[in-house]
Design brief:
Elements lengths: L1 H23 L17 E10 L11 E11 L4 E13 L9 E16 L2 E15 L7 E14 L4 E14 L13 E15 L1
Antiparallel strand pairs: 1-2, 1-8, 2-3, 3-4, 4-5, 5-6, 6-7, 7-8
Length: about 200
């Protein structure tokens, strides 16, 4: 009788042994998932652009053209951007001469997530601007200004952005006399652009 009891206890212990051993094994850790997705070092932008033409006497209309930028990102909220734009097509008839404008500028850019896929950004730009087709002397001026805009992220790589700037320059008056050819006059131009962003 005692042997039957001992045999029953031994069988029960053998049946429970795998359960006890399994309870002592640490569960496997789940791999961590980067919720932020991949990060990219550069952001390229190209779009349609508009600028006012306040440096021209008697100008009635602004100019349309293209705008491009390349930004080197240093983290999620800061970058250095370089911007180039060319404007040639008038928004209407009435501007004197055959004006055209190109500009090159660079500066810091600051970003923040506003809501969901929507980001906001601010930048400060310093560079040079050229006004052609007007006989200005000189026809290149130092320029600078500030602006900002909104960026809607379509995916991790692609986005759509709209922005505006207030850029200052110091051109002389158009078609002025030689005595006043180098007399500077400070102007500001409002600029606007809308286009696409690609990160890489």
């Amino acid at each position: 009788m005692n042997s039957k009891i001992l045999l029953s206890i031994a069988a029960a212990a053998a049946a429970l042994m795998p359960l006890v051993a399994a309870a002592q094994v640490a569960p496997e850790k789940r791999p961590t998932v980067d919720k932020g997705g991949p990060s990219y070092n550069y952001e390229a932008y190209v779009g349609f652009a508009y600028t006012s033409l306040n440096q021209l006497n008697q100008s009635r209309y602004g100019l349309m053209g293209g705008d491009a930028a390349l930004t080197r990102d240093f983290g999620r909220h800061f970058g250095i951007t370089a911007n180039g734009a060319y404007y040639r097509v008038a928004t209407g008839s009435g501007n004197p001469g055959n004006p055209s404008v190109w500009s090159l500028a660079a500066g810091p850019e600051f970003r923040a997530t506003l809501y969901g896929n929507m980001d906001g950004f601010l930048h400060v730009l310093v560079g040079a601007e050229h006004t052609g087709g007007e006989g200005m002397t000189p026809n290149v001026s130092a320029s600078g200004g500030f602006g900002g805009g909104l960026l809607y992220n379509l995916s991790q790589r692609w986005g759509v952005r709209a922005s505006g700037d207030r850029m200052y320059d110091s051109f002389s008056l158009a078609n002025n006399t030689p005595a006043l050819a180098y007399s500077p006059h400070t102007h500001y131009n409002a600029r606007a652009t809308v286009g696409v962003v690609y990160r890489f």
